[in-house]
Design a protein that fits this description.
The structure is a homodimer. The first copy, chain A, folds into three domains: 61 residues, Transferase, Pyrimidine Nucleoside Phosphorylase, Chain A, domain 3 (Up-down Bundle), CATH 1.20.970; 250 residues, Nucleoside phosphorylase/phosphoribosyltransferase catalytic domain (Pyrimidine Nucleoside Phosphorylase, Chain A, domain 2, 3-Layer(aba) Sandwich), CATH 3.40.1030.10; 73 residues, Aldehyde Oxidoreductase, domain 3, CATH 3.90.1170.30. In chain A, α12 packs across α13. Chain A is built from 18 helices and 16 strands. The longest helix of chain A has 17 residues. Chain A is 47% helix and 16% strand. Chain A is globular, with a radius of gyration of 25 Å. By secondary structure, chain A is of the alpha/beta class. In chain A, β7, α10 and β8 form a beta-alpha-beta unit. In chain A, the strands form three sheets. A five-stranded mixed β-sheet of chain A has the order 5-4-7-8-16, sandwiched between helices. Chain A has a four-stranded antiparallel β-sheet with strand order 9-12-14-10. β2 of chain A pairs parallel with β6 of chain B.
Chain lengths: 438, 438
């Protein structure tokens, strides 16, 4: 509300708060340097991360630094310094004995690769560590999928172990929460530091990254995904870890099943040999092969050993053992099935599937799970490139709550099939590894 | 400290904190848009500023927004929206009667213009409002200079008035403190919004901005200063205020005196007609002329009226009245003089003054004041372009504590005089004003 001010007879209005002497300091100079596009030196990154975790630096300057980093980008040596500072913020695990291989996926829809590949690689005699997470946005989480099996409780993991994992990279927990609030999640450098710091602190001796690219992934374009893949491999190599990164397709759901428990069913069926979706199969084998490579398995033995573990049933037995260790049973695993209420999502016209709104599919599947339980969800029948007639089934909805028409609306039909996309667009290997592999 | 971790027999390490479902929201989307270089709409700026002042939005997202704004820049309509939101955050003064003219300087060294121009313009019959500040970094503050006069206490300003000024633009106080901590002070859009919001809320009907450019100013280059000048004029015009902006030189101290009380002495001597530094005079007259113009004084009357106020002693009498209103007296004003201890800063060799480290001069003068009181400081004798012989006086130090050699070190001597720089590089006027002035 405008009000009439008292006018100073001498024409001076005093504003005591207008100016204050700013505290000059290294932190502000660092922020100004990053704002103007300069690279910060390692000791500055170390000081900022340590101060933030200790609480001597508050959210505001770090939020500004994250935004400047997201816009200006981080140079390779800055990502190394940030990652190193993050690793030093907490405990670092070391596994005695053979190299432990870790696998990271940047997250996708219908992405059952982790569930399958961990027992598969373990069955090949390679020690596997996998930091598993909960569902994030429209993508599923491996823990949720495991817990869909009756009796499985991932919180049965030894308390000491859980406590330990909570002491790994506390800087990442704090920084990720801040990035989430400040629009700075999408930054190659910050993403790479977050991912790799946890792998290093978690004791991984070798790492395979599965970077998803496409409309269902956090990286929308192949170019972006390739940049992240190279950044991850270079960064892990810089810490002396053998590493590979795949760029794999997420223009559409990877496998057939999208949900929680129904993805576990798909993983079980895949491992048991009942049904192997070809796209899922290509991704699983590519990841498993890289995991064996970085673990030091001779290159000629990689493919045969993987196939043998799969076909002999060893991988499936390893999966059963994993379930049992978490409180589940073979019988429970074998009993699980998609929700019995099924309804088809129908093609409204003749055409070819040219696009699938993968984020929508992921979100609809999560709605179905929330309404009808773990075994509700969506089963993709017509992948991109599939010709359909009016009335053909595009997908199958499991569970009574989700309207199949909403699922059908996520499919775009066109005249001609789009160019085929490989499931695995490329593999980035660290230089040493590619030399030794030849 | 690396420690040996317990290895999970099944190869799954659970990291419960790895992923959390992020809260999706308008604010994060706004931050992402600004990060990617988009313009935010007025309602978004309004919502952010209001939320920040109310405390429903905390420092972190605002710090990130400020950094994104500093790097990406703000479009004209965004600056208007931000300024409007800032004005709305507090009270708005309105002066009854004639248009009140306000004057803003972006701050410099030896910049006595405000002290001189306020009584000068008031003596021309134009009501003047001036929001005055304290010293900032290496630059002096008008309040400090006034209080150097014995008896003058600017806090004698009516309590109601002080309380009122504290309710003006609370958003600016909060945002400026955050900018200061996050390396985001230097941003044309944020600077313009900060300056103009206070002028609008303070009831200014017309505004003259004196934007300093050069090594002693916050704007280092003429181009930067010109951009700020145009932005300020466009912004003020957008709020219906008549406005002009000068870009004036700050490659070296403006007048001769640099300090606190010795600048007041210079202002007194200028107004009384004892001594008028030609550079200071040029700047004072340019500012006074623009203030009269924007107040609606007919263009032909501007220069004569100003000179008359100066030469008749009316401006000086107005200055005395101002001092008296703040608790001082004519006798006190007439008694003030530089600290009696004087020492020359000597040219070490023959040459021409080609540069003066103006920030250093400002900082040394503040040191002298801190050590020896208000009337210590530096008097510039050799401005840029002055030829000197070895042993000639470059400057005079008032007060015993400051080593004159440190002052001499701020002068760079060269072979040839650099190209002359005008004191006022340009004047930017709003379109309506320039039309009506022709």
């Amino acid at each position: 509300m405008p009000r009439t001010g008292e006018s100073d007879p001498q024409g001076m209005v005093i504003d005591r708060a207008e100016q204050s002497v700013p505290a000059d300091g290294w932190l502000r100079r660092a922020l100004e340097a990053k704002r103007d596009g300069a690279a910060l030196n390692p000791s500055t990154w170390q000081r900022i991360v340590a101060g933030y975790v200790e609480g001597t630096i508050d959210d505001a300057p770090v939020a500004a630094l994250l935004m400047a980093s997201a816009i200006r980008g981080l140079k390779g040596e800055e990502i190394v310094a940030l990652t190193d500072a993050m690793v030093r913020s907490g405990d670092v695990l070391e596994f005695a004995g053979a190299t432990v291989v870790d696998k990271h996926s940047s997250g996708g829809v219908g992405d059952t690769v982790s569930l399958i590949v961990v027992p598969l690689v373990a069955a090949c005699g390679v020690p596997v560590a996998k930091l598993s997470g909960r569902a994030l946005a429209h993508t599923g989480g491996t823990l949720d999928k495991l817990e869909a099996i009756p009796g499985v409780r991932t919180d049965l993991t030894p308390a000491a172990f859980v406590a330990q994992s909570e002491r790994l990279v506390p800087a990442d927990k704090k920084l990720y929460a801040l990035r989430d609030r400040t629009g700075t999640v999408r930054s190659i450098g910050l993403i790479a530091a977050s991912i790799v710091s946890k792998k290093i602190a978690g004791g991984a001796g070798a790492i395979v990254f599965d970077v998803k690219a496409g409309r269902g992934a956090f990286m929308r374009t192949l170019a972006e995904a390739r940049t992240l893949a190279s950044t991850l491999v270079r960064l892990a190599s810089g810490f002396g870890r053998r590493a590979s990164a795949l760029v794999s397709d997420m223009e559409e759901p990877l496998g057939a099943a999208v949900g929680t428990g129904i993805e576990t069913v798909e993983a079980r069926d895949f491992l048991r040999g009942d049904e192997r979706d070809p796209r899922l199969s290509e991704n699983v084998l590519a990841v498993a092969h890289e995991m064996l490579r970085v673990a030091g398995v001779p290159v000629d033995a990689v493919a045969p050993r993987t196939l043998d573990a799969l076909h002999s049933g060893a991988a499936y037995e390893r999966f059963v053992a994993l379930i049992e260790a978490q409180g589940g049973s073979r019988a429970a695993l074998e009993s699980i099935a998609p929700h019995p209420h099924r309804a088809p999502a129908i093609a409204p016209a003749r055409g070819v599937v040219v696009a699938i709104d993968t984020v929508a599919i992921g979100e609809l599947a999560r709605e179905a799970v929330a309404a009808d339980g773990d075994f509700a969800g969506i089963r993709i029948v017509a992948h991109i490139g599939t010709p359909v007639a009016a009335g053909d089934v595009l997908a199958e909805v499991a569970g009574p709550s989700l309207d199949p028409a909403r699922v059908a609306a996520a499919f775009t039909l066109g005249e001609a099939a789009p160019a085929a996309r490989p499931v695995v667009a490329c593999v980035v290997r660290d230089a040493d590894l590619s030399r030794s592999a030849k």
